[in-house]
## 1
Amino acid sequence: MDLCLVSRETKEGGRIIVEVDGKVAKIRNLKVDGRPDGFGDSREKVVAFGFDYCYWSVNPEDPQYASQDVVFQDLGTEVLSGAAKGYNICLFAYGQTGSGKTYTMLGTPVSVGLTPRICEGLFLREDDCAPLPSSCRIKVSFLEIYNERVRDLLKQSDQKKAYTLRVREHPEMGPYVQGLSQHVVTNYKQVIQLLEEGIANRITAATHVHEASSRSHAIFTIYYTQAVLENNLPLEIASKINLVDLAGSERADPSYCKDRLTEGANINKSLVTLGIVISTLAQNSQVFSSCQSLSSSASDGGDSGVPSSPSGTSSGRGPSQRQSYIPYRDSVLTWLLKDSLGGNSRTIMVATVSPAHTSYSETMSTLRYASNAKNIINKPRVNEVRPSSEVLVWYSLHQVLLSFSLFITNWEPDTYSPIYMPWRLCYLSDLLLKGRDFSNISVYQNHLERL
Ligand SMILES: Nc1ncnc2c1ncn2[C@@H]1O[C@H](COP(=O)(O)OP(=O)(O)OP(=O)(O)O)[C@@H](O)[C@H]1O
């Protein structure tokens, strides 16, 4: 987990109570500090939290100041390399309002954040990969969750009333938003245009309903598909990258919201549930690790399962069954991020905090959340789609025909020539068999054209 600090409250005269020491973030309790040796007070003066990375971005003059580029070099490149290998990735920013979530995820025109840098990296990577036997297709979508309603930020309705989309669950692909628009992008400029369009819609929507933007969660998703040749056979590697800018976490504290859950519209149910999901997953992961160490001597060779198993009622028959139920479906955000939070995705949580003493309890709560989330064990897996045997037959046939035609005519085939028919048929049959996205054809078409 990662920690990022911002300067807003220091400008308002707050005393700095957070410091970063390598990969450790330390927070000082001034109330305990005020008493001689903290006598009669059981609270810690300084509490330290260890993370994978800690960033200090309070003062640009400071030698340890972490710029957007430093954050990208650590986290953004991890996202890019994971996506290239075919993992689903989720990167989300969590923290109190004004602590720098949007700054970290999106940035400003002069200080570009993680999302645009990751998009740029995907296109650079594609250019880098050009001589390799691969070709990529990139699609994006952008949605907002506000008061448990999902809105497409890239497809606005003509009517004044914003329309909402439904979340559904596919038995294999998991939860998805029905009717969410996906946009094919072929260069960085197109992504930035869509990103800006979505951000503008997000802000407009927030003003329209008279709420601060911090009350909505924005999820920018990149669908990155690569067509590669492995041992001369076609293979598709797909990765979904979720980049999430969450609402302010002050509404995530269950004690803050407990009495108000029934108030409905005013409560950010998604953040409350996210907190519950994170702490339950962390607990389950701890149970899971202790189970593993307990059972290591009695190794039965079986798969002990992911700690996020939704079937979590306790029956007392074994330690693995003491795992708690995870209420993903209690909120739209956690349902949509189900795989990212406790499933097959690589997930990075960026916790942003204010260093000012006035934010002590919020900062403490965010650091505890991040520390908790660090204990979650996911089981990332590569998303590969291998062609069916029928497709392979077609593909081999095509290869033979292509070599034969080149041999006989010594002629450069163009994509519209009849010689491409078998190849087309082979992917059509694949589509028919698997019911996959028709545009996959273009990925392979590009791919073959590059060979
Ligand atoms: N590391 C930083 N360096 C410089 N300015 C920053 C930094 N982090 C945040 N800011 C600035 O602080 C202000 C608040 O940041 P930001 O909008 O990112 O907060 P937020 O956590 O997204 O808030 P909200 O939950 O309300 O959306 C912005 O003007 C932003 O540009």
Note: Residues 388-450 form one domain.
## 2
Amino acid sequence: MPPDLRPRARLRSMGHAWRGLRWMLRSQANARVHLILTTLVIGAGLATRLDACEWTLLVLAIALVWVAEAMNTAIECLADALHPEHHPLIGRAKDVAAGAVLLAALGALAVGVLILLGRFG
Ligand SMILES: Nc1ncnc2c1ncn2[C@@H]1O[C@H](COP(=O)(O)OP(=O)(O)OP(=O)(O)O)[C@@H](O)[C@H]1O
């Protein structure tokens, strides 16, 4: 088996990913807001006994927000490392990356509202 496919190497790689996520939660206020909202939404889903299809949509919507936030954070880190000084293009890159998080969050909000409206409407 190639060394990079060995379970130990894959586990180490997953450890790096968890370290990145833990750092994101510690350093990014937005990520902590996502964590609170994710917990609330999952609680609401459990309370209203969503079906498998509704859970699938909700999980995908939540995952999309987390992926967008992680990419936004990675882009911010890279930009700050490569070009710490002020630059209009860095600002634009950060604004667009933050826009991706906003789009994902609005999509997740729409999914949540539609699912809960279906439950209570
Ligand atoms: N080096 C830079 N050059 C130009 N504009 C910048 C630069 N750094 C930050 N900005 C501007 O300030 C905004 C906030 O950037 P910052 O790196 O502080 O991210 P943040 O406060 O964590 O934002 P977010 O909440 O969107 O993740 C950016 O979206 C951008 O408009």
Note: The chain has four helices and no strands.
